[in-house]
Structure formats: C-alpha cells, structure tokens
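Protein entry
_____________
===
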Amino acid sequence: MRRRGSFLVEAIVSMLIFTVGLLALALSLTFGARIIIDAGQNTIKEQKLANLPEEYLMDRNMRIDVTSSHSGTPISPINQKIEHNGEQIDVVTNIGDSSLLIGNSSLLITKFRYKLPIKRTSTFYVIERKP
C-alpha cells in the first residue's frame, strides 16, 4: 500500500535530478565556448610571434642597406614585444654569444630565442653574425 504524498516526493526528486543535469549541461557548454575563445586568442598570439622574427630580419636588412655607407648603430631584437589585447608580452631572450668554427676561421654569433612565456611549442631562433 502506497502512502499519500509519495508521488509528490518522487516528482520533486526527479525535478531535482533534471535540474542538476541541465546545470551540468549549461556549465559544459560555457566551458567549451571559453576553450574555443581562448584557442582563437592563442592562435593570434602565435601568429604574431611567428611574424616577429621575420619583421626583425626585414627591418635589420633594410637598415643595413640604408646605413651600409656609414657605420649604423647595431640593431637588437631584445626590445621587440607582442601587443595583444592591450597587454605587452616580452617574447625575445638573448641566449648568448658563441663562436662557430668553419674551416680554419672562427665566426662569432649571437643567438636569440622567440618564445611565448606560457607555451612550450612555437619557439623560433635567430642566429646573427657579430661584426
């Protein structure tokens, strides 16, 4: 024999389970949308990083062509930054100076690394001959 009100308790419990399910679905949709938006922002940052070494090399070559007749000031990529959403990100580090032995002559070089601080991938290197 069923007691009075048992149907009401069953209906309330089922509505509670249904509400928890809807909340979980809404949370997963918002979480998924956030991941998609962040992926787009990271793609923009990585593309800016990929363009930065090329911009430096083009700028350096243009200055060398312009100042080839007289000694121009050396250009360094260290002050290059990525600007994204009003934030400036330092991406260039000077790895150091070293020398390469080619045949019997030694070539002095400086190495620079372009890397986003929070990413392990998307690293670019520029090796530059020292005068």
Remarks:
- The mean pLDDT is 82.
- The two ends are 98 Å apart (CA to CA).
- The chain is about 45% helix and 25% strand.
- Residues 6-66 form the longest helix (61 residues).
